[in-house]
């Protein structure tokens, strides 16, 4: 595992559109089909990363809270399943069913979506407003595996509340931190630049 920070896609960026396999439904679905009326939270995750495992239960709960505010959650895994079969489609589906995801879990096989969002790590959070313009990107909160800080989702909750009030936060948005996305050979941002 290489500890990696998110790249911090520029605020107000319009959400790159995609059509990906929803591992639970078994169908290819578009972003627009899962867009929330007042906002959309897109999170790059995977099954095995300890940073994701650390906060996954909280993410499932926060998605229920956000849903009541008409903000939908979408999760995407872009990991290379040849090198990390534990992040494969069947394992993704098992995790989604076991954790009772109320949101889609998409597989980004070509990693094109991860590149379009400049995703770098798992978890990587992107909160878009009702027009799919980026309102927040960064960390969930200050909690990390082993640092003894409670999981609260404070950073994301604050960003959500400000977005719903049509206010732009002047506070610093801290990058998310976690495992690097497991890129296909020759597909990492460094190799493509």
Write up what this structure looks like.
By secondary structure, the chain is an alpha+beta fold. The protein has one domain (3-192): Glutaredoxin. The chain has helices spanning 50-68, 89-98, 112-117, 154-164, 189-192, and strands spanning 3-5, 19-22, 27-30, 39-44, 71-77, 105-107, 121-122, 124-129, 134-138, 177-180. The strands form 2 sheets. The chain has a 7-stranded mixed sheet with strand order 3-2-6-5-4-8-9, covered by helices on one side. A 3-stranded antiparallel sheet has the order 1-10-7, with helices on one face. Strand 2 and strand 3 (27-30) form a beta hairpin. The longest helix is centred in the first third of the chain and has 19 residues, at 50-68.
């Amino acid at each position: 595992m290489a500890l990696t920070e998110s790249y911090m896609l520029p605020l107000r960026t319009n959400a790159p559109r995609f059509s990906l396999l929803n591992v639970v439904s078994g169908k290819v679905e578009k972003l627009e089909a899962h867009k929330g009326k007042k906002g959309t939270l897109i999170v790059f995750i995977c099954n095995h990363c300890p940073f994701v495992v650390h906060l996954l239960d909280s993410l499932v709960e926060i998605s229920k809270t956000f849903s009541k505010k008409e903000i939908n959650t979408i999760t995407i895994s872009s990991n290379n399943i040849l090198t990390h079969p534990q992040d494969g489609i069947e394992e993704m589906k098992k995790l989604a069913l076991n954790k009772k995801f109320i949101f889609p879990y998409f597989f980004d096989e070509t990693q094109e979506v991860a590149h379009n969002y400049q995703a770098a790590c798992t978890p990587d959070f992107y909160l878009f407003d009702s027009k799919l313009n980026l309102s927040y990107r960064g960390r969930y909160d200050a909690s990390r595996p082993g640092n003894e800080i409670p999981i609260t989702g404070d950073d994301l909750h604050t960003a959500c509340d400000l977005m719903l009030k049509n206010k732009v936060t002047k506070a610093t948005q801290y990058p998310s931190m976690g495992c690097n996305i497991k890129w296909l050979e020759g597909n990492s941002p460094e190799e493509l630049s």
